Amino acid sequence: MWQTALQEGLYTIIAYLNPWHLLLGIVPAFLISGAIATLIDRENILRFFGPGVNKWIAITIASIAGAILAVCSCSILPMFTSMYKIGAGIGPATSFLYSGPAVNTAAIFISAAILGKIGWARSLSAVIVAFVIGLIMDFGFGKSQMHQTKEKKMKATSSLGIPWKGLLVIFLLVAIYMVRLNLFKGILLVAAFLLGYVLFGKEERRSWYQESWSLFKQIFPILLIGVFIASGLRAFVPPSLIVKLFGRESFVSNMFSSVIGAIFYFSTLTEVPITRSFIEMGMSSGSAIAFLLAGPALSLPSMITINRVMGWKRGLSYIGLVILLSAISGSVYEFIF
Q1: SS3 of residue 43 by DSSP
Q2: Collapsing DSSP states into helix, strand and coil, what is residue 329?
Q3: 89 DSSP 8-state letter
Q4: Which of 264, 251, 272, 270 is nearest to 330 (CA)?
Q5: What are phi and psi of 148, to 5 degrees?
Q6: How far is CA 39 from the centre of its chain?
Q7: Cα–Cα distance between 167 and 221 in angstroms, integer?
Q8: Does residue 134 sit in helix, strand or coil?
Q9: Where in 72-172 does DSSP place strands (E)?
Q10: 14 vs 37, residue with greater confidence
C-alpha cells in the first residue's frame, strides 16, 4: 500500500510539473499576487476599514481585501487582531478575517487552473460569504463595540487615486485564465511583461518580480507537498468512503464537509490538490465547494485565537457563520449547476 501511495504521488508530481502547466497555469498566479502586493497601495485600502466609514463601503472593501492585500492564512490572524484592537468595526474586521486566506489571489487562480469551474465558483462564493459574514456580525455586535472611541477611529480618504497602471498589468495576467488555447495564454503573458516594462520604472519592476519570486518560494514547495500527499491518500482512503461521506448532493453532506474542513489545518493552497483528489474519488461538487470555503478560513488553532481576541460569543458566532455559509454555498452551487 505504501509503495502504491508513493508511486501515485510521484506520478502526480511529474504531471503537475509539466512546463506548460507551470508557465501558463501556476506562474501567472504568483505574478498577479506579486503585482497586487507591490503595485497597489495597501495603506489607502486599509483606511476604509474603520468604524467611521460607511459600513457598506467598509464591508465591501474588506470582502475583497484578501485579493488586494494578498495575505495568507499564517498572517491574517495578527493583522485581524491589530485591526480589531485599534478600532476597526467588527463587520469589516470579520469580513477581512475570512477573505484574507479565502480570497487570496494565488488561491483564486490556482483553484481555477486545477479545479476549473469549481475553482471559479469557490472564489466568487468566498467574496459573497465574506460580505454576508461582515453584515451579520455588524448587525449582531456592531453597536456594542465599546472600544470604538473617537481617538481610535480611522477615516477614509477622498484623495484615493486609481492605480490604473498596475490594474492594466493585472488585467492581462487575469485574462490568461479566461482563454483556453496555450498560444493565447502565452501572448497575454508576454504582453503583461511588456506593458509592465513600459509603464513602470526599474525599481518598481524589480519589486514586482522579487515579491512574485518570494511568494513562489514560500508557497510552491508547500503546494507540491500537498499534491503529493493528496495523491497518496488514494491508496489509504477507499473511494467508497468518500462517496459515502461526501458523495451525495445534499445539505447534510455539504455541512459535514464544511465541518471537516474547518477542523483540520491546511497550509496555503494545499486544500486545492486535496479537494481535487477527493473529487476524483467521488466527492460531490457541493461538498467540494463547502470544503474549499471552510478549510482555509478555519482550523482548531485559529478558532482558539479568534475566541480569545473577540470573546466566545462573537468568536463562536463567526465560526458558526463560516461553517453554515460554506455549506449553503455548496448547496446553491448544486442547485444552479
Answers
A1: helix
A2: helix
A3: -
A4: 251
A5: -85, 80
A6: 20
A7: 28
A8: helix
A9: none
A10: 14
Encode pLDDT of 82-127 as tens digits: 667 666 678 888 998 999 888 877 778 888 888 989 999 999 999 9
Q: Which residue has the cell 492594466?
A: 168
pLDDT score recorded for residue 157: 44
Gap between the terminal Cα atoms of the chain: 37
Inter-CA distances, 20 with 26, 110, 182, 189, 306, Å: 9, 14, 8, 12, 41
pLDDT at position 331 over 50: yes
Sequence-distant (6+) residues with CB within 8 A of 130 are: 62, 63, 64, 66, 95, 96, 98, 99, 102, 103
The answer to which of 38-42, 82-86, 192-196, 235-239 has the lowest mean pLDDT is 82-86
Query: Residue 200: what are its φ and ψ, rounded to 5°?
Result: -120, 150
Element of type H or E holding 33 = helix 27-39
CA distance 103 to 63: 8
Degrees (nearest 5) of the Cα angle 158, 161, 163? 150
276: Cβ–Cβ under 8 A, 6 or more apart, which residues? 114, 115, 230
Distance in angstroms (rounded) separating the CA atoms of residues 325 and 30: 28
Distance of alpha carbon 83 from alpha carbon 47, whole angstroms? 10
What is the rounded distance in angstroms from the CA atom of residue 268 to the CA atom of residue 292? 12
Residue in the block written with cell 482550523: 299
